[in-house]
Write a structure and sequence with these properties.
alpha+beta; QRL_CxxC_CxxC; 2 domains; binds zinc ion; 6 strands; about 110 residues; elongated; two-stranded antiparallel ribbon
Length: about 110
């Protein structure tokens, strides 16, 4: 196995990211091998090592399936239903109000607010 390039902590070259950094961008290593490693020296113990992956070889995280979209839509719809008037408010019911704005502030519409 070829030796991996080792970089000092915070001096990682552009185009490389840790698994966590990839995840933050909605990416995953996608089966590629570790491309490089970062080492942060620590006192009395071995260095802290982080593995880097090439961003250009990373793949998007598991795409949403129709089932997952449906489950998400259902959850979002439930959060838009006002518990007081049982209608779809068209937006997520604010937890601070607990009901849709129309129920929370009756007459707000007619008052032109
Ligand atoms: Zn309501």
């Amino acid at each position: 196995m070829a030796a991996l390039p080792v970089y000092r902590w915070r001096l990682a070259p552009d185009g490389y990211a840790t698994r966590r950094q990839l995840r933050a961008q909605g990416l995953r290593p996608g089966g590629q091998c570790v491309a490089a490693q970062l080492e942060r020296p620590r006192r009395r113990r071995g260095p802290l090592v982080a593995y880097l992956y090439r961003i250009d070889l990373a793949k998007p995280v598991r795409p949403m399936t129709p089932g997952r979209w449906a489950a998400l839509a259902k959850a979002n719809t439930a959060r838009r239903i006002c518990p007081a008037c049982r209608t779809d408010a068209g937006y997520v019911i604010p937890t601070s109000l607990g009901t849709c704005v129309t129920c929370a502030y009756p007459g707000a519409d007619s008052a032109g607010v």
